[in-house]
Design brief:
This protein is elongated. It is of the alpha+beta class. The longest helix is centred in the first third of the chain and has 25 residues. The strands form 3 sheets. The chain has a 5-stranded antiparallel β-sheet with strand order 4-5-11-7-8, with no helix packed on it. The two termini are 22 Å apart. It is built from 8 helices and 11 strands.
Length: 285
Amino acid sequence: MQLGWVCLMATCKFSTAAEHFGMLHRAGAGTVAGFLAAANKQWRLQSVAGCAACLVLAVTWNLWSLQGAGFWLLGLSGAMMLLYTLVTVVVALTIIGMPLLQLAHTLAIEFGDRSTETRMSQLLARIVEPRFFHDGSFGFFYFLKEQWPRGQLTALLMTSEFTGERRWERLFANLNFKDRFVAPAVEGVDSNMIVLSQAHNCRDSASLTIETHAVSDQVAGESTEFQVVRIPTLQSTRPVTVECDGWPFEDWELAGDNAIVIRCQAKRAKFVVYTGYTGPTGASP
């Protein structure tokens, strides 16, 4: 894993100048004057220093290898480095290079590389073109002059919104993830009306916290509903209680043996359903 990270960082160092030119060209700074005015001087100096450091390291390694492998290894490695750099430049000048930048950004967050995270964030902020469109929806358009945002590019960019060092490692190394299928959960959400930013079981308070948001301004305030299922207290004498934004909430009803239906409006609201569940939740440790 660490070797792959080193290779990726080397790629970013070699292609920084090309990335800047290609991305800023799509952002409307394609002339030399525009590029020089838009590119940050400190970033350029750091990029040159990074490229020089990589070249010095490569030459040193090749000279050392002459002791056993011979002169041909130096020539082969130099040719491979030149080809690698050319490919990186070509990729960086196209839309294909954007996933590389986004991957470098999310991996910098994953490994706690704050310096790289900051620099990649500054670069991405200038090329992803975040804006609202259509009926109040939000997306990243990358100065491609298209009607809709690119789905895969946006999805990869959103991986960096899940912040915290080693967060993806904890997610995929979670051996207790199946426990979430026995804990209380939210179902039946009308995705045309509301989205959820939180649906979290808390064992200490025996509750499920749900935070809703309207999909757009056009549907804000309209009526909708969703279900909370696998509630164990419905099978016992302990009552279920619901709160909304800290106040008792009564607009709900039973929906079978272990589920309830909550009626609400399409808006930002925080519901707390006291389910009585204190078992495993399947969350990452």
